[in-house]
Amino acid sequence: MNATPEIASTALAASDVSLWALFWQAHWVVKLVMLGLLGASIWCWAIIFDKSVLYTRSRRAMDRFEQTFWSGQSLEELYRALTQREATGMGALFVAAMREWKRSLESQGRSFLGLQARIEKVMDVTIQREVERLESKLLVLATVGSSGPFIGLFGTVWGIMTAFQSIAASKNTSLAAVAPGISEALFATAMGLVAAIPAVIAYNKFNAEVVKQQARLEGFADEFSAILSRQIDERLAA
């Protein structure tokens, strides 16, 4: 005869600790914390997807450019082909150096004495711009990864304070009265970890990828600078 009330009580308890119920019954401050962490998590995943596509395309573009550059194709032909579209990565580096080279040629050799330094400076600036493009929005991942758990902990502390106030007001210290409030509070910490953990992993992975691609850019800049340096020496000797 008591089976039906027990089942109903169990169903009510289960519904009270569902994720939606935990959010809906939480204090408005805790709700704001949860919504903010949810928004941060969505933003981080959008950045993760965007950067994954960007770095994949950048690696493939570098591979194609290196294959074309070292295939023996004329530098003039490669320069004309790249100037017809917006070049990035090694292409942008090559175009910047060649543009400075051609400006010196148009001045009939009067600027060759300082050309090597100017080319290296132009390539350094181009590498800096490319690295900034690759690193854009990574600060968001670092910020969410470092501050997400603390924001969630703030929501938990506030929720526990509210739960204890409710317990003191009702004068009921049974587990059934304590559990929902504590669960609501801990849900904020869980949200903080859900937002922070992927952000930290993605930031470390992407930061390592930026370092690798920067090293490739700097390596190509050194090689291309050496090629142009030999041509400069030949023209000065002539």
UniProtKB/TrEMBL annotation:
Residues 116-218 form the MotA/TolQ/ExbB proton channel domain. It holds the Pfam family MotA_ExbB. Its main location: membrane. It is found in: Cell inner membrane; Cell membrane. It is a multi-pass membrane protein. The Tol-Pal system is composed of five core proteins: the inner membrane proteins TolA, TolQ and TolR, the periplasmic protein TolB and the outer membrane protein Pal. They form a network linking the inner and outer membranes and the peptidoglycan layer. Part of the Tol-Pal system, which plays a role in outer membrane invagination during cell division and is important for maintaining outer membrane integrity. This is Tol-Pal system protein TolQ. It comes from Labrys wisconsinensis. The gene is tolQ.
